Every structure is written in C-alpha cells, then in structure tokens.
C-alpha cells in the first residue's frame, strides 16, 4: 500500500526537479557528494509526483544539514544529532506528511546514535538518508564514528584507534524495515532506491557513500568505484532474509550497494488508535470537555 | 472530643501498601466534604526502607500538613521510634505488640495513649493476606474518629471492585474487624470531627492538576522519560490518550523527549513534556532549539533535591535560577511556579496560551511536595481555561505568496503556520536565519532577529500579573516566597496573625520575566522583608536583587529535602528582630 496521498493537483503534475530549488545556491565544495544526493532527491520527488508542501525534511547539523537552504519543502533544521526525534514528533502530529531526515555520519551514529537505535525499532513511516563521508567536514576534518581504523585526521593524527560503526548492520539489528546503501557517484541508482524508500511503509534507511573531496583523500570516488557492486545484480539475493542482509552488510573488500533488506511490519502509527480516524493536527481543541477526567479524582 | 482538625499518620516498611492506605484515608474524608492535605514520604527503592503517609483533615480550609499528629498507625516498631515525638499531647499510637516490645520506647511519652491492636493475629484469624493489615488499621482509625464506616466500605468497593467480589469482601471484612476492635472491644472514642456540608471534594496532586489543565488546553502530544517526581503525569496521559486523542510517548531519553515535542509543535499541535532537574539538564539544548526556531513548547519541571541523582523522592526548590538561565545564549522564556494544585491547573492552561501567543518555551515549576501530595478542592471550572493559539494560520488561503515565517513585526511575533499547508512552506531553522528562515550570519540580520525575538517581551510583560499579596496590607513583616511554600506560609500566617506581629505574604507564581518595577513600591514600603524558600542559596532573593537592587537580608531557608511545616516558619518569623 502506498502512503503517498493523491491530491487534486496530481493529475496535472508538471513540476520539474528545478521547482524544488530555493533561492539559495548550494555552498558545498566543488565535487562534493552532496550534489549527487541533492539532485537525485529532487528527481525522486518529481517521479513520485510529490508537491513541496507535502514533504517535511528534518535536517541535522553538518554539511548535509546545510542542505536545509537548498531544497524547497517544509524544513526543520534541528540540532546536531536530534533530527530523528524532531521528525518523529512531527510525523506523529501529522502522519499525512511525507517525512524525510537528512544527516551526516556524526549526526546519525555519533552524537545521535541513541536516537538512531530507537527510531529503527519504532518503525515510524519516514525515510532517513545518512550521508556517510567518514569524516567531519563542516568542522574541517576530524575523525567520524564511521572513519576506518588507522585513518589520520586532525583529531587523530596517529590514526583512529577504534573500528568504524557500520550503519547498515546497526539499522538491520535495530529493526529498520527497509535498509539500503547508495553511492552519491551513481545518482541514477540512488534515485531508484530513494524512490523505493519513500514508498516503503515503515522506517526506511539509506546510507549514502559520499566522498568528501576536501577532507577525506582516502574514501574518494575512485575508491568506491573500485569496490562497489550492486545487490540487484545478484540473482539469488533474498531481500527479506535478515541474516543474509547482516552478512552482506559486513562485507568490506567489495562493498554492496542497493537494497539489503525490505519487509512489511506494522508501523508505529498503525498501533495508535488515536490517529486512526485523522491526524492529531486535525482535531479541534477549542473547548475540550474534561468532566470524565475530573470524575476520576473523587 | 469534638475537633475541627486532625492529623493522622501511618508508617511501615516500604512495599506494603502504605501509600495506597494513606490515599484511601484521604479519600474517606474528601468524599464527605472535608478539607484534606496529605504528604507521602518514601525512599527510592521498592522493598524495605521506611514509608510514611500523613493526612491532615479539617472542617475548615487548610493549606498544608502540620507537625502535630493525633493518630499514628505504626505498622512496625521503627515507625514508633521515628515518629512518636510528632504525636500531640493526648494523641494515640496504634501498634501491634507482635512487632516488638515497646515498653522502653513508651517511657519517653507518658502523655499519649498506646493502643494495642493485634494486627497479625486478626489477619491470621480472618485468613486473609498480610497486606490486609492496612485495612484493619483503616477500620481502627475510622472508629477512633467516630466516623462512618460505610464511607470506607464504599471506597473499597470503588477501588477494588475490578478485582472481583472476593477481594472486595476480604478488604471490607478486615476493615470491619479493625473498626469493631476499637468500638466494641476497647471501647475507645478518641475524636470526632465537626460536621461539614457533605459535598464531595476532588482530591488531587499538582501533577494531576497539570495533566487536567493540559488535556483541557488541547495538548495532543506528551513525551517523557520516567523521572520522580514527574512520572505520574506520564502515566495519566497514557491512561487518557485514546479517549482524548493524545499521543503519549515514553521516549529513549529526555533529549529525544524535548525534540519530539518540538517536532510535534512545529507540525501544528500543542505539545508538552515533564521531567525533573536531571532530565531538564538533558533538555537544555532542546530548550534553545525551541527558542531559536520560535516553536511553542510547555515544559513541566518537577524539582527534587539535587545535584546529580540527589534525593530522588524528596522535595526542594533548587532549580529556579537554573530554569531562568537554562541553555546557552540569550532568549526569552517564561517561568511559572504554581503554589498549589488549583494554580497548577490554571497556570498550565496559561502556559499553553503564552507559548502559542509568543512562540516561546514556557517552563512550569513544581516540586515533589506539590507534584505528589493530594489537596482537596471543589470541582475545577474548566471553562475558565480557554485556548488562544496566537498567530497560527491553518488555511493556505490566508497566506500571501512570499510567506515569511520570521517576519520582522512590530510586536516581534510572526505569523506561524500548520506544517503541510500549501502556501506556508518555510524553514524552521536552529541556525540564525533571515525572515524566510534561510541560514543567515550577517551582522545586520543578526541584530534584527535578536531584537525581533526579544521585542515580544513588551506585550508579554503587560500580560504578567504582579505577585499576589496575602494577608493584611499594613503588616509588620512581609514574607517573599514562590511556588509550593505558599501553603505552609499561609498556615503560619494564620497562627502569627492571631498574635502581636502582623505578617503578610508576597507570593510569586510568575518568576520570569520578572517585572522589578511592579514590586519596588512594596519592597520599599514594608518594614521588614524576609524570604522563605526551600533551598540553600535563597534564589528568589537573588532574583529580586538582580531586578530591583534590593537585598532581602532575612531568610528562612530549608534544604533538608523536606518541605516546610507551618511551625518552622512561625519560629523563623518570631526570631526576626
């Protein structure tokens, strides 16, 4: 069942990706992976015939968060690491909104790691795009929770001592119902999985491998092009098999992109009787009768 | 003996139903129109440790519990040791000799009556669970007060009816046994309360009143992480969410709690959170996010003794300066501090209207004493809480093209929209932003936006009432206080004003913004000023100093983790020279 509600304009939908541009021009570095994500996202909205006002994107803080200013939809630029709970609150208040979350690796699995775990298991119907460039870009080049062991940065001049967080494995074991990986250097493929993620009913998670051309000279476009392969090209890969997905997520030498896992499970909203009839935001609150509650106190 | 006022206390080991027994005792009297205030004391554990529950009942209006206990029900020996000195001259202690030989302990108080009721034997004879000792003690207490046992029976039926007739039956049987033991076996007739108009009163805590006020105000999203003494609000919301179309979310931590509420409010509904100091510490960054994005938010802060884990189940007013200054940077917020459940109810309503009108966070401060203890009231007239959503636009046709979410208006308040309407697209931005919401770090813009947000104070301050004055205007001593100290102070004033020294009270429920001018006249005119606060560092006195330059030298402070008792304030005032 698709959650995208058809509005009156849908038949005569004639928006182009450029209609999702704002008056601000992107401020990302030339060659930044964010451009690829930005372009495929706008195209996805057009493919899905979504109007800008039907979409809410909640952003974290970082280079990806600065995207707030460059896509014309409803937007909430939240605090570092806090995009997921803000999005959760908004979605519960009005579950008719198409809610997306944009954030970087530090935002999602560093400072916001706790929210990531719990949002996955909640299975709220929204789409989280985690921009993984394995480095802190906006603060000019310190280690990220996804940096590879030994990676030298300004905050780890002798090399990172920890092993990286694997966002795909984490999302899988925490209960996300749609888990995918894209590459910002392949916008056509990214568009396809973004479209499927938004259409998925439940919490969909996409990790985007995104080269940082300024502060990460290791994980470059070429680095990824040499390593990635597409799960779609495997004949017998079963996207509904969690163990298989976890195994795939652990591959390092060759890195799979595409959809690792996709299942149907009742969403958090499905369990809320109080929003069955209409979203919370549509309730009149001018004169609520609390006599029944007052009676409890006698 | 006919009395207008009695205090009853039950004590025993934690985990044996002391609190629910106390709550039933309160109910017995509120049901028949008496004024009731109660107080529970318990440690932060589930079994073991000492629990005590005090109930004060009166045929006249009362504002707090008192120190002197008329009847002490001691379910163990420790209760006698800990509390027998609180028993008033000629008062009663109900105990069971099976719990230990108290011959020695008794010697300390020859002026009181020790009544032996063999709880354990009775329970064994009746063949009912041990927990029924509580009902035996309730029956015995009702008998000592010459009160109507049928009221107790009805309450037992109300409370335990769901658990089936058998449970109701042995609860009632046990209380009847206790009643008869006093009436027929011991033939003691201790007190009799003066009769009042038998119109049932509500019995509710500050937390209950906040919950009621929030539901009436149309709060549709409530998020929290359990933390004493705020937890009962979470449970109340959860119990009402289906009937009232509210989503209640027990989130992973208080950071998620406040951010979820911000998201819900941004989407267009009224949202609230509650916590104690520790959770509020975690919420601090979110508080600033609500401020910069101009997202309305109501935060209930139920204080407890801190820092760190502190005394989780006790009371203190240590967080007012924290609340006023919480989060980095300078921004407008409102801080309220109701003094009793009735004020909790109406100020919660007010908090939502202020938050919506000014698009700012509003913090409502309670403390454990106010959050968890019951006070009796006549039914609240909820029509007195009205809903004002300020400049919130819900229809796309009301919005012009080129909508500016942060329009630089004369009163500083910009039109806000319900997220999702066609012409209202904008960015709510935690970065400094321009009128549209785009991130903008220009110097000129920064000043304009800071001024815009602070300009709201002009209209806001006109809406804030001056502190309320209780007692004679020509008093010799003026008490300055805030929040839950109100009750014990009013009781103390009743005592003091029958003597020579006349005392009045300036009570603050609106603590920030603080209108210094509104009180300068009072502070200069009064002969002697004294602050009464449940903290170590006299934080209200500091706020008054900051805003008026006046130093209040006399201070009555209590920071033992217990709220004031009226007598302590009387003593404090009498010592002022």
Your description of this structure?
Chain A has about 300 residues and is α/β, with parallel strands linked by helices. Chain A has one domain (about 10-295): Thiamin diphosphate (ThDP)-binding fold, Pyr/PP domains (Rossmann fold). Helix content of chain A is about 30%, strand content about 15%. Chain A has nine helices and ten strands. Chain A has helices at about 35-45, 85-95, 105-110, 115-120, 165-175, 185-200, 220-225, 240-250, 290-295, and strands at about 55-60, 75, 100-105, 125-130, 135, 140-145, 180-185, 205-210, 230, 255-260. Chain A is globular and about 70 Å long. The termini of chain A are far apart. The mean pLDDT of chain A is about 95. The two termini of chain B are about 40 Å apart. Helix content of chain B is about 40%, strand content about 20%. Chain B has four domains: about 1-200, 3-Layer(aba) Sandwich (Pyruvate-ferredoxin Oxidoreductase, domain 3); about 205-385, 3-Layer(aba) Sandwich (Rossmann fold), CATH 3.40.50.970; about 390-460, no CATH class; about 470-575, Rossmann fold. Chain B is built from 20 helices and 25 strands. With about 575 residues, chain B is of the alpha/beta class.
